[in-house]
């Protein structure tokens, strides 16, 4: 038997009993997670570890490439998970988290490696903007730098997709939602954050404001009245 | 016979001969339109009249509700028209143009009027963000004000959709694309423009800078190198 | 600033005030357009100019290639615009209007030019019948003649698609709908019309009946009774 | 065990040996069927019995409601079967065959009976034109007559869908394809055929020409040249 | 006129009158078929002949490749026919029936032969599991053996798809549904059946139990209670 | 600022440095995870905690309801993640992991609670089989027991979906893939496993063989030859 699978007994014997108070509370009161994290399926990037999250802290959606399709007529698992997080759980922070050495981004950089994986290829069309930006704006990049650029632009693209989701768009207008675009460098042990105003990624620094992709500044409720008055 | 249809002969007899030099040039050299306008099918809002455009000036996409679906796995006519305008024709300005008294927006405001029109209902899901924003952020609006608010938010939503299109996203990063969100008030004879920085619509005024939804400021080509250096 | 965009002020200053009575009436009473025109996004083919239409006269749907997808389970912007025109506005004439030197039809003729435009390529599958007819029935055509043939057959194909839309099909049976297939030759300043009986395009001539693709002859309400009697 | 399933042994023991020459020829030379029949899954309407067809004679597609979706971006089993029949097998006659007492048509007539069958409901959207025609043009019909009318109009609608398929459209232009719209009355033992010129169904009579929905008269290869000359 | 089509008169003159009692009963009482058969459109494989079925015995769905797409968000004709058979007609046996020398399976074996048939190619993605199994597990097979292996695995794959349909899944749990996977060898006049326990196909033999793909053994209604008790 | 988000600095300061050898190895050699886990986005069910997995051990896909859509023509993020795990990473164990008090399953049990969440409602159609099984086979269950039954049947349904994926199906035939269906009871701190032979869930016990949903017993490569010989 797969050795990893056998470790499940430790959960029953050690982990659960050791956190029985927390689990009891979570089972009784239900969850009220503090954020939604959309990250890659990659085994090396564990959201709860990066966020130092306890059970109950973090609603998590993971897929190859940390992708959020835009809101469209036909939606799937990511859109539904976003909708549930915002509409049912009232989450007010969403983090899209990419990472270095991402297999999906490497495949996007070398599409010929996707030949035996038609579904991955189709799925990565949701990263076409990242690919297009790098091909068109940074044509001289190659190798590691090109993959890094695609991975960062992919986070930018997924943040743009997130904004098309009605529940997210409305929460932003109400000033009740912030979007975060992160990139975990698993080689350097460093996390970068997208600054939405400049479009650049900055190293997160404890002594500086956290860069935010889309901040939670409400538009005022007066807006439409103002326009009326202007006529 | 429908009287309107009979007027086509005037085109052959009067219009074409009167502009034969222009048509001759356009037929010989092909088109190189100065902008793409995405507007409603409404008969009262004639893009070429609003823009005072000659044949050859304006690439035009029109549909019920001036909608641009986001870039997704399965795309249709609007996405293709955007792609053709940017990739094949090199258009550098895209205008999304809503208008007052819009039948589609009125239907969005009163969904029960869509009962016999299942396709319109499905199509208007691409305006769900506008509907959601107004329902959630401006619950007290009703009647004419509510329809106006939905129509303005619909322009905001379609601009957000436009940004998900790879060719548009890349042109924005290169600083070669500006997006414009307009609203034509056919009662007041006035055109409003979305100011992307504040999220508000302003009356266009000849003596002031044109409000722009997404401006054409490039991110610098150094960006990724800078990030590397920061590590 | 793009010079074309600056012209919008002329609309506010000149056009609107000059037609204020018409606009006032249209704003008060709403639109009741006399026809729906489905034409190409091409900047050289201005529907209102070809039809000599005033604001309020013509409901207009425009996309790359003047395409009408057939009525299917999943419908988009064109289907919705058709549905709105027929069901909400009661339009009784629909014109599908192609044109010479059409970029979409040239791309269909040389599919390899579509390599960087996957959405246009997918969209043009709705013109596959035109492509198939010309490849299979007129294999010797090439160059300008081949593009012209594809463009004409494309109008035929889109008329066939229009007939699959329930609202259109029912209006035809009631004798309350005529479909028109036109082709504007922007080199010759000439308009051709599809004669549905023979399947050929004829020059429109003021002294002859207008060729019609599908005419508005009702089937009699007796039909089903008659069949019963025949048993 | 289900008694019907046990009858399969008779095929091995009796049917196959009794037609071994025919099966041997069909296995060696492959099939070259004389027509494609699209009929309902209904157990009472056996295509080979109605057509008096031997093995090898009739390519058959059957589904609930004898439906042919129009040719669209995403196609399924019926479209593929049509494509294979025309492109790979060279079939030159296609029969769409409806029937009396059809469960699918009855469900279309009373949509509330579809509540537990969401897929059937979605599938029957391909018959929306038939439903729309009868509701709109024959509002006074009810009961048996209404179901009969919907069933006949459904055959008309599926013939319209068939014409959107590129391989079919091209074969019609070449004069190598006839489309037949039939209705089998299993109460009266009678077969009706759609006459495409009048849009009515006629009883098939051995002493009269078979009514044809779309006949195989080619358009002449000269067509485009003629149009050129007309300019 | 196509000679086959002319044979329809024999149905009216001979077949129907000869079975008028049966047809009368079926018209009066409606159908209650004993099984659903999903088989290929191939003209050489006549389900009613193989099953020795009378009118009224067998509900039949036929398409190129005897394919059943899995139950998904968007479903088509086969899914609807399955749903109707189980939910409306209460069918308790479903037979998926492949055959030798199948054109669809040969195309799957040589995908390059599908170049002119994009819909068939797309449709056959529902047989991708069969193709993948043979390519990966039996790489040394070629020619006739490879096509046979793909055809058999295709039956296995379609049975797996059938199990994803809710109505089928529930009937299996209730013990009211058996699934059969058959293969008709039209060269040898032999029928093979899938034994679900071993995953192998066996010749059907009258003196042995019929091999069944998924048998109708109910899970006990106690199941969930039992689990509760185990805690 | 959201307190949770601020904890990210601990990752940089403490977690990464403390595991620098492991991360260094994973960054240099890439990942080779021991299993794919498909679990719910629920914040209380942390896959790495349940599996006691280190970074690099577990490829993880998470979405609302731990759903795996079946392999179909149009696939999304889960299908792509499965494909990548099997085809690119060679994963040989897949665990579908449900849990108690699941919001998605509760919504499935009371569909009226989904009114404001149309995407979640659409996504949960992939759990329709579970809903259908419980409604039809265990009609007397209600409250907590009904939700538990739906959650368990949902795991069964997703395992059935997994088997339709070509890469999974082929790996099963080769004997290189085991599928596991688990249910984590966060109230009792207990993990149940699906026994594929009986269709029941059993408590995992360290002293007994792990129940397996689909085991990795290969079919022999001789299969097709054997069938040939049987003719
Ligand atoms: Zn990754
Ligand atoms: Zn409008
Ligand atoms: Zn054009
Ligand atoms: Zn029927
Ligand atoms: Zn076959
Ligand atoms: Zn859950």
UniProtKB/TrEMBL annotation, chains A, B, C, D, E, F:
Key word Secreted present: no
Biological processes per GO annotation: carbon utilization
GO molecular function, one term: carbonate dehydratase activity
InterPro entries hit by this protein: Beta_CA_cladeB, Carbonic_anhydrase, Carbonic_anhydrase_CS, Carbonic_anhydrase_sf
CDD domains the record matches: beta_CA_cladeB
Enzyme class label: lyase
Cofactor(s) for this UniProt protein: Zn(2+)
Domain of life from the UniProt record: Bacteria
Pfam families: Pro_CA
Residues bound to Zn(2+): 40, 42, 99, 102
Keyword list, A-Z: Lyase, Metal-binding, Zinc
Catalytic function, reaction form: hydrogencarbonate + H(+) = CO2 + H2O
Primary role: Reversible hydration of carbon dioxide.
Family note: Belongs to the beta-class carbonic anhydrase family.
Protein name: Carbonic anhydrase
């Amino acid at each position: 038997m797969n050795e990893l699978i056998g470790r499940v007994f430790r959960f029953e014997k050690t982990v659960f009993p050791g956190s029985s108070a927390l689990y009891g509370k979570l089972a009784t009161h239900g969850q009220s997670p503090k954020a939604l994290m959309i990250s890659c399926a990659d085994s090396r990037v564990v959201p709860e570890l990066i966020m130092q999250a306890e059970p109950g802290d973090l609603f998590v959606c993971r897929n190859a490439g940390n992708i959020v399709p835009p809101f469209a007529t036909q939606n799937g698992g990511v859109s539904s998970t976003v909708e549930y997080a915002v509409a049912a759980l009232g989450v007010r922070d969403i983090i899209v988290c990419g990472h270095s050495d991402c297999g999906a981004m490497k495949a996007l950089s070398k599409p010929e490696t996707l030949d035996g994986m038609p579904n991955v290829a189709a799925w990565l069309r949701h990263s076409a903007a990242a690919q297009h930006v790098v091909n068109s704006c940074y044509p001289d990049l190659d190798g590691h730098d090109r993959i890094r650029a695609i991975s960062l632009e992919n986070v930018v693209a997924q943040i743009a997709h997130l904004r098309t989701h009605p529940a997210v768009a409305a929460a932003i207008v109400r000033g009740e939602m912030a979007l975060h675009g992160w990139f975990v460098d698993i080689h350097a042990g460093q996390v970068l954050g997208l600054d939405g105003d400049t479009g650049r990624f900055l190293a997160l620094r404890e002594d500086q404001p956290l860069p935010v992709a889309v901040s939670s500044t409400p538009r005022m409720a007066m807006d439409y009245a103002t326009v009326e008055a202007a006529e």
